[in-house]
Amino acid sequence: LAVPPLATACGRGDALACREEGAARAEGLGAARQAKAAAKLLEKACAGGSAAACGDLAEASLTGAFGPRDDVRAGTLARKACEGGAAIACMLYATFLREGRGVPKDEDGAVVLAQKGGSILGAQCDAGDPEACHRYGLVLAQQRDVAPEAVAKVESRACDGGSLLGCRAFARMKLLGIGAPKDEAGGRALLAKACDRGLYAACGELGAGLRRGGREEDKAAAPELLKKACEASIAEACLEIGRGFDEDQTPEAHAEAVPFYLRGCEVGSATACVLAAGSVLAGQGTRADPARAVELFQKACDATDLACAELGKVYLSGLGVPRDDAKAAALFDRACNGGNPRACGDLAVLLRRGSGVPRDPDKARKLLDQACAGEDWTSCANLGLMHMDGAGGARDVEKAVGLYDRACKHQSGLGCFYLGAACAAVKGGPRDPSTCVHFYEIACSLGDDGGQLGCVELGKRLVSGKDLKKNWQKGLELLHKACDARTAGACRSLGETYLAGGDVPKDATRAAIALEAACGASEPEACAALAGLVEAGRGAKRDAARAIALHETACAGGVKGSCDDAKRLGGGAK
User: Fold this and answer.
1) DSSP state string for 314-328
2) Among candidates 253, 252, 269, 250, which has minimal Cα distance to 261?
3) What's the rounded Cα separation, in Å, for the pair 510 and 499?
4) Which DSSP letter does residue 68 get?
5) 413 and 399 in contact (C-beta within 8 Å)?
6) Cα separation, 241 vs 394, whole angstroms
7) CA distance 200 to 228
8) Residue 199: strand pairing partners
9) What are phi and psi of 427, to 5 degrees?
10) Helices (H), 142-250
11) Half-sphere exposure of 429 (CA within 13 A, CB side)
């Protein structure tokens, strides 16, 4: 496509030219991919009577290609485009009718529209339109009763007619051996052809394929192809480069990866936004900036419901934003409905506690069952805990331990932690406590959030000498590690250890710092202990008003003694 002549024609009010230029910019064909410019051109074309442009906008509204997803707008545009004769839009609107998405469900109407769209595209393809052949291939690929060979034949025809998108689609089929004999050399040749003619997405796919599975001599060409695609705003290529750097698993390599994640996020990859946000939040490979991380997580969530779970975790932790369990729950619910099993599990944890949502153990168990079936192993561990406690259903110790064991074997630190906590209590279990402590060691070595709980238990035992040879220095190190990772209960245990003294030198200042972190993470007992230090001026500035506020927080969290202490100091706790 020659963009400048199209731009001239579009400026004169030619809706077809505006649509072709907009489609080219959306695909990164002959020029860098430009989502905003593409959207503006397609809006102009749609308003000027181009049904195909309205259909393009409908697809973009559905996928979030030009901004936040909007199913209602997508449906309205698809219907308008279909009525104007845009075949692919008819297929899209048929999906809306079949699913009842934003419109009354009408399965018969969906069948009629799908047939209409297919007939139009088939006729256009037979008339020699290669782009129609490509779109017809996309339609056929979605129909279960159509053989892959038929799809490959249509995409091959599209490619032979000059459709670069058809060449890319046929290349994929050759590379995978779907509908055509597997032919990696032939598939790559077609991608190279499309890349050379200006389809930068094909450059990215070719580079990614060479980087992952090419011969050593081929891999050398991958970085140049990927950078060419990334510079042309192909988000997937930017993401691929970042992941390539991260394979080295070194801080230096990750620092190289972060700019590509940021670039990928900027040009439309929700996954790149999540990876960039995690780095920015933790200050890994770049300067820590919690507020910026929240913006990146929000952008990912706007693009796909699946990514909303990460934003929910931020609101749950209170990093970069005020802690808000209700908002976290809403985001987990959105991601869960979008098909994210871990989000279902995260929502279940809040439902069980009644944090940010009304307490509902029955619903929590059902969500955990759903998430565990989706192979989220942390959820399997939490489901086991509900069976162990009899929450939301009958108590079943044997099933609980089985779920813990299954989760632990799949590298869930939480599963190993629960297994350690349960093994000595199970009838017929090991009599040697060190056998159960071994599960805490496995959990701690895994290093995930649940595994940090294993580090806490190991740390406490090493400090006290219970079930393990005493090594308070190592125990203190583990407690610090878990506290730094914002693990529930870790900072409280660390603060209590510094207060208790014994082998560990007493240190009221360090105790106050650890208890402050625990109190901020909603540990009411830590708030109560910190209130005592603040009231006495030990390790923290004496402040009666703050002591009252801390006792009131602890009282609200169920620490009855703090209710009395708050009133003793002149507070209003009841």
Assistant:
1) HHHHTSSS---HHHH
2) 269
3) 9
4) S
5) no
6) 50
7) 7
8) 29
9) -60, 130
10) 148-160, 164-176, 184-196, 200-213, 216-219, 222-231, 235-246
11) 18
Whole-Å CA distances, 391 to 174, 368, 380, 425: 52, 12, 14, 18
Q: Quick one: which H or E segment has residue 48?
A: none
Closest CA to 462 of 503, 425, 428, 511: 503
Helices (H), 447-507: 449-464, 472-484, 490-500
The model's pLDDT over 486-545, given as tens digits with 9 standing for 90+, comes to: 786 899 999 999 999 888 999 999 999 999 999 987 789 999 999 999 999 999 999 999
Tokens of 20: 């072709």
pLDDT digits (tens, 9 = 90+) for 90-148: 888 888 898 887 788 898 988 888 888 888 899 999 999 999 999 899 888 877 888 99
**Which residues, at least 6 apart from 411, have a Cβ–Cβ distance to it below 8 Å?**
377, 446
Q: What is the dihedral of CA 549, 554, 560, 564, to 10 degrees?
A: -10
Which whole-number Å values give the CA distances from 472 to 15, 463, 475, in the listed order? 76, 4, 5
- Within 13 Å of residue 70, how many CA atoms lie on the same side as its CB? 14
Q: State how far the Cα of 255 lies from the Cα of 247, in Å rounded to an integer.
A: 12
**355 half-sphere exposure, CB direction, 13 A CA radius:** 20
